[in-house]
């Protein structure tokens, strides 16, 4: 308690300098907190857009399907697998997909297309595909009134084939049994934009594509959406699957996007480090000046029997109190901006592209991580730069100190 009283007395003895130091560290906390909030919030927003777009958080495939896709590399008994995974903790939705390269024919033109079979209800709960229908209506199970299965077609493919709503689309592919697959479908919706993932895709219901490709209870991909993207890696690692199946998190499925995001994050951390370095230099200067001004005082303390450890702890405690107070002030200052960034965000005049994902609203993040990391950084850097002045004060020789004064 005596040490604490002395530390408070020394801080309040030169109030102007202590106030300037406190404001400097509070500014550092404020900048760190707002920048980390923007950084983490923007990355989380991008990841959510990316995973909800079409990848999901975790995907299941046949062992080497991702590296060497093939029509015959299927997940068998897929309905049972989907139902089992749906009951796992943290799972929001699960859906299965079938992929088949195809030749699309419309009126007098042909064009290559990727045909994707989906469960309309499960797909709508897992991704944003339903919201991307620009014309017509969302895909339905069963046949249309004309007796053909309905199809969603990408906007670029529709333009290339000169097709619109209600037109017939002919697809030619290879069945899973090696036979020629061909059938007529009715376009009931046009999906995506000219720059989106869906632009050259054709979407059929699972019932339609399984009949088209002569498949049974099979799929090429199972997509899992979790309650938070951070659970993807541990969930994929913990998922128990048959020996020939692999679970991969979105970080592995879209590795280029993940790596580009990590590089950008490292750049932000360097900027944050520069800010804290500048703040730490100011703190070091203040603590060092305060220590040198009290050389005679430390000499007297040592002369009356104060141990070097106590002198060292006195300087460290003064720095800690200033750092803690600055974090409290900085937190109060940063609370309103972080709240605004988290729930309203900043609308940019032009969208930013990150790994193929465009986003126009920069959102912040309000979390314990955003508030605690700057506090730990400010307090830690303050104590670090205070070590040298504290050691210098602890090694003070009473006679020399009093003679120098």
From TrEMBL:
InterPro entries: ABC3_permease_C, Lipoprotein-release_system, MacB_PCD. GO terms for cellular component: plasma membrane protein complex. It comes from the Bacteria. The chain crosses the membrane at residues 20-38, 269-290, 311-341, 361-385. It is found in: Cell membrane. It is a multi-pass membrane protein. Keywords: Cell membrane, Membrane, Transmembrane, Transmembrane helix. Residues 18-232 form the MacB-like periplasmic core domain. Belongs to the ABC-4 integral membrane protein family. LolC/E subfamily. This is ABC transporter permease.
């Amino acid at each position: 308690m005596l040490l604490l009283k002395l530390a408070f007395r020394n801080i309040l003895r030169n109030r102007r300098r202590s106030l300037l130091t406190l404001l400097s560290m509070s500014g550092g906390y404020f900048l760190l907190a707002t920048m980390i909030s923007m950084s983490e919030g923007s990355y989380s927003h991008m990841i959510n857009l990316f995973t909800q777009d079409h990848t999901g958080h975790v995907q299941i495939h046949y062992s080497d399907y991702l590296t060497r896709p093939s029509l015959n590399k299927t997940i068998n008994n897929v309905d049972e697998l989907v139902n089992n995974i749906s009951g796992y903790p943290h799972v929001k939705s699960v859906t299965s997909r079938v992929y088949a390269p195809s030749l699309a024919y419309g009126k007098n033109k042909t064009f290559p297309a990727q045909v994707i079979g989906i469960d309309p209800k499960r797909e709508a709960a897992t991704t944003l595909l339903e919201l991307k229908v620009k014309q017509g209506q969302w895909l339905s199970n069963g046949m249309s009134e004309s007796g053909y299965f309905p199809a969603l077609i990408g906007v670029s493919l529709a333009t290339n084939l000169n097709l619109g709503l209600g037109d017939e689309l002919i697809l030619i592919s290879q069945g899973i049994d090696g036979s020629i697959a061909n059938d007529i479908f009715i376009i009931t919706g046009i999906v995506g934009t000219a720059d989106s993932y869906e632009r050259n895709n054709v979407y059929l219901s699972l019932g339609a594509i399984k009949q088209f490709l002569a498949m049974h209870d099979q799929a090429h991909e199972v997509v899992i959406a979790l309650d938070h993207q951070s659970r993807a890696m541990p969930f994929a690692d913990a998922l128990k699957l048959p020996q020939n199946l692999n679970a991969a998190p979105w970080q592995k499925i879209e590795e280029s996007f993940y790596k580009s995001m990590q590089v950008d994050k490292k750049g932000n951390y360097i900027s944050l480090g520069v800010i804290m370095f500048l703040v730490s230099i100011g703190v070091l200067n203040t603590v060092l000046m305060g220590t040198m001004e009290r050389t005679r005082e430390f000499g007297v303390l040592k002369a009356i029997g104060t141990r070097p450890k106590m002198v060292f702890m006195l300087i460290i405690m003064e720095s800690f109190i200033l750092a803690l107070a600055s974090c409290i002030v900085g937190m109060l200052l940063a609370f309103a901006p972080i709240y605004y960034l988290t729930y309203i965000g900043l609308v940019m005049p032009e969208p930013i592209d990150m790994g193929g994902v465009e986003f126009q609203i920069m959102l912040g993040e309000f979390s314990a991580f955003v508030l605690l990391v700057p506090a730990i950084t400010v307090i830690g850097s303050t104590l670090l730069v205070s070590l040298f002045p504290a050691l210098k004060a602890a090694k003070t020789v009473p006679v020399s100190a009093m003679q120098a004064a």
